[in-house]
Amino acid sequence: MDKFKEIAKGKAKSMFTTSNPSELIMEFRDDASAFDGKKRASLAGKGAVNNQFNAFIMDYLGDNGVDHHLINLMDNTHSLVHSLDMFPIECVIRNRATGSICRRLGTEDGLILEKPLFEFFLKDDDLGDPLVSTEHILAFKWMEKDELNLINKELNRINDFLQGMFRGVGIKLVDFKVEFGRYEKNGKKEIMLADEISPDTCRLWDVNSDKKLDKDRFRKGLGNLIEAYQEVARRLDILHEQSNIRPLKYTKPQAVKIKKK
Ligand code: ADP
Ligand code: UDP
Question: What is the distance between the alpha carbons of residues 119 and 138, in angstroms, rounded to a whole number?
Fold first, then answer.
């Protein structure tokens, strides 16, 4: 499958059309950005780690009945996905308070939340991705009510699966962000989990030391970001090699099956 035309260049990934109008190629670049794009860098190997990470996680969720957009892992930095009509909403699930919620509400950093807290942000870089309520989402028709209900259920399920998966390898899933889109084929509509789930989009802390194993290493200038991502990947058995930079030679993970719709 060849890339045809770049239709979107986001802060960390590029989307390309293919010969099949209902499929896109998602390229994971090495670009890192934080603070609405104000801090930027290129981190060798990040695209490859995140691409393989994302494929592993999507496949894990797929095996647990979560519909997602991944069709196939193509190579180190490319995945083939279903082309979706994306909801303009970022869904954040928090198991502990940290990051923007502490800045907004002055809550204690690291506070354990009694039950997962969902927050929704409008995807609009010019507006700085503002926090929106479910009432806003419905009033402005960014999602229909049944879609929002289904997504709320999926968020709980995804959080449960991922928390269990990470806990099993000694990692606390503090928070994460996901996106969804509408998929339509032969008049049949489906909601699918889209975009990526990787250490770029999650906060992951070591259970014993609280060491940050996610993009906060970049946001806070802690260094060794790729090494931290690799550590998570090794614990999950996604990555088998021990070398440092650019360690991921493409090997098709056995877990990733081709799921044709
Ligand atoms: P950002 O938009 O935050 O800078 P990225 O660099 O991750 O993000 O760019 C990827 C873009 O592709 C995002 O806008 C995302 O919503 C979109 N996207 C992800 N999955 C799909 C999909 N299956 N179909 C269409 N668009 C998608
Ligand atoms: N997140 C993301 N993309 C964004 C904003 C947030 O993947 O554009 C993730 C982030 O990595 C964290 C969670 O969503 O795991 C919550 O982020 P928060 O709202 O605390 O924002 P931040 O502190 O990153 O500004």
Answer: 14
Tokens linked to 65: 């009945």
What does pTM read for this prediction?
A: 0.93
Give, in order, the Cα–Cα distances in Å from 204 to each of 131, 177, 236.
22, 12, 13
- Ligand 2: residue whose CA is nearest its atom 5: 177
Residues near ligand 2 (Cβ within 6 A): 90, 92, 99-101, 129, 175-177, 201-203, 215
pLDDT in tens, the chain (261 residues): 787 899 999 999 999 999 999 999 999 999 999 988 899 999 999 999 999 999 999 999 999 999 999 999 999 999 999 999 999 999 999 999 999 999 999 999 999 999 999 999 999 999 999 999 999 999 999 999 999 999 999 999 999 999 999 999 999 999 999 999 999 988 889 999 999 999 999 999 999 999 999 999 999 999 999 999 999 999 998 875 543 333 333 344 444 444 444
Distance 250 CA to ligand 2 centre (A): 28
